[in-house]
Amino acid sequence: MKILVTGAAGFIGSHTAECLQNLGHQVIGVDNFCPYYSVELKRLNANALSDVGVKIIEKDLRDSDLYDTLPLDIEYIFHFAAQPGISSTSTFEDYFSNNIIATKNLVDYALNCKELKLFVNIGTSSIYGLEATYPESFAPKPASFYGVTKLAAEQLVLQKSREEQFKACSLRLYSVIGPRERPEKMYTKLIDLGLKDEAFPLYEGSDTHLRSFTYVGDIVDGVVSVIGNEDKVNGEIFNLGTEVEHTTQEGIEAVEQVLGKKIKLNVIPKRAGDQLRTKANIDKARRLLNYNPQTTLLESVKSQVDWFKANFL
User: Fold this and answer.
1) Quick one: which of 8, 135, 155, 187 has the fewest CB in 10 Å?
2) Domains in the chain, please, with CATH?
């Protein structure tokens, strides 16, 4: 099938595009190579995709001329592109334009793809709010601009399913870790600073926060499982992540174990909107998509450390 992956040079998008290409699909990746974080890392990811045959188009989804740049004979869309995470350097306008306007433009483009079988929106556990332990039927209570705008993006896509203009679903991802993770994210930063013997900035109280730290390979398995299940997933939302919880402190200790050294910590003030607990409720994905993540935290960290050492040392 001919598949479009947005945000293809990013962390999870690049892994998904690579997997789909290796499964025999024709994958086209689109990315605007925004300097929110290292463009060098995005180019590294894009080069890895080009090596396996993925075509990369450099394009900003906030542009209104997507019809002129992107092919219209697409059968699947996996929409990863977004203004990510909770950041003090990102304004509401950044989240609004990248998560809502860009998604609306992509939806308008998708309406012109006459062979489209399914539009897959990539959501986030941040949609649930400060506690993300619930089934998909729970009423969202986002507590950040990121969560609010990702919820709006999700509904823009699912609206078209309800209107029967195209089939669509949304996948809410939980605390993804592994190779290619963004530089400002916890594990990449822990590994980098640990190897440099520099202090890791730990938000006050966050050492007790609970997370469903999920290996990126397990996430990709869930993402691609929707293929061939268009009728089953149409109009639905699915949580994807591990049911196993770990504290931030346990995550730090896992990195220390793999690196074989103690990591220095620098406690800094709390961050507004940070989730206190995430635990993926995957009963629905397990039942309908046979989703069954298996990778342990230690295995995930070892894979990420190996990747970091191979690319940045």
Assistant:
1) 135
2) 2-176+214-240 (3.40.50.720), 179-211+244-274+294-312 (3.90.25.10)
